[in-house]
Specification:
Mean pLDDT: 96
Strand order of the largest sheet: 3-2-1-4-5-8-12
Oligomer: single chain
Low-confidence stretches: none
Number of helices: 12
CATH superfamily: NAD(P)-binding Rossmann-like Domain
Number of strands: 14
Order of helices and strands: EHEHHEHEHHEEEHEEHEEHEEHEHH
Largest sheet: 7 strands, parallel
Shape: globular
Helix content: 25-40%
Bound molecules: nicotinamide-adenine-dinucleotide, sulfoquinovose-uridine-C1,5'-diphosphate
CATH topology: Rossmann fold
Strand content: 15-25%
Radius of gyration: 21 Å
Structural class: alpha/beta
Number of domains: 1
Length: about 400
Amino acid sequence: MKIIVCGGDGFCGWPISLHLSARGHEVVIVDTLVRRAADRELGVDSLTPIRALDERLAAWRAVSGWSIPWHAIDLAHAYDDLLALLVRERPDAVVHLAEQRAAPYSMKSPRHKRYTVDNNVNATHNLLCAVVESGIDSHVVHIGTMGVYGYGSGGGTMIPEGYLAVEVPTADGQGRIEREILHPTDPGSIYHMTKCLDQQLFYYYNKNDKLRVTDLHQGVVWGTNTAETRLDDRLINRFDYDGDYGTVLNRFLMQAAVGHPLTVHGSGGQTRAFIHIQDTVRCLSLALENPPQRGERVRILNQMTETHRVIDLARMVSAMTGADIQHLDNPRNEASRNELPAVARSLISLGLEPTHLQEGLLEEVIGVARAYAHRCDKSRIPCTSKWTTS
Ligand code: NAD
Ligand code: USQ
């Protein structure tokens, strides 16, 4: 298959691009490197020493023999360039990861809120609009988030894979009919809100233009490297640890490695879904190799392998490393405790064999967090982005 990976220099996009290339697909990357610009804005760098994209691509060519061309097209603003690329390349599929993905970054200031909405919503809409205008039948695969369902208390209900079966009263009030509707959304940040808006865009273009779309509702990704990024030091993946882009489990692993107490927000009763980066990569190839039929509704798959409470993760890392646990005032506006029962059967039935936390954690602590601990700037660990001003 010919596959365009939008956001192919990012934390998920880089290993996904290499994995698809290693499987014999013809991969093209689209990325403006805006994520690297955000590092410069925040005065932080990946814990792992990531190379410039040109250098990464040259290393991949040397290691694998495969070339991956790269185009610096801004999905949110360079519509004509995007359209021209689609018309020229005629890809079988487009993987869409080109969005601002950090909840704390999206809540930093009005400017960051507006940037996140502008970038994410326009990027998604431009891509869908361009696929239709180009007249090609590309399968669009997007990574969304488990956060679209919301993190309320759970209330004893099960989160389905995208669609909820409901009974609606008939107009005469005499009976009820069954429907499947998109699960109601309940975003917990401006970033998560953009993913909810993405869902509506997918729904519309799928209904109106019969676009084939798979939306992968992914949990928090942990880990760093995959089979392909381990092949050469120059292929190493990024590791975000700062208060804006670092995600909870990787932050705890890094904090343990540098002797910083584990930063639990509030009681740590928040339950979240998790997946290892190696499984992310595998899920993408499974989704691409099993596309929906034309006319089929948007396919929504929950891309997660386990759920954990934040405090349990901290205890697990502490037991493994001896790190102290610190409870901080929660900078976010989120439920202090929630349940997260969710269905995630589809990717397993397509062949995913999950990597479990207990198997991979030690390797991550020793192989990555400790190995690069000297690159950590401890002043960048605190989460300074607050959800509300009061
Ligand atoms: P990332 O920030 O590392 O990568 C995103 C890439 O897209 C970056 O390289 C950036 O430069 C590029 N980009 C952003 N806007 C662009 C634009 N307008 N035009 C061109 N390029 C643009 O993020 P990631 O962690 O790789 O996440 C990828 C996707 O997966 C995101 O959509 C994110 O919402 C989703 N996701 C990530 C996680 C996670 O834990 N990392 C979990 C669930 C879902
Ligand atoms: N948390 C802490 N301590 C920290 C950092 C975070 O207790 O030092 C808590 C947060 O308050 C939150 C939970 O850990 O309750 C998860 O936070 P996170 O930063 O790991 O994840 P989140 O903001 O939800 O975002 C990440 C990715 C995002 C993706 C999302 C999947 O950045 O792109 O969409 O995970 S999900 O969580 O399923 O919505």
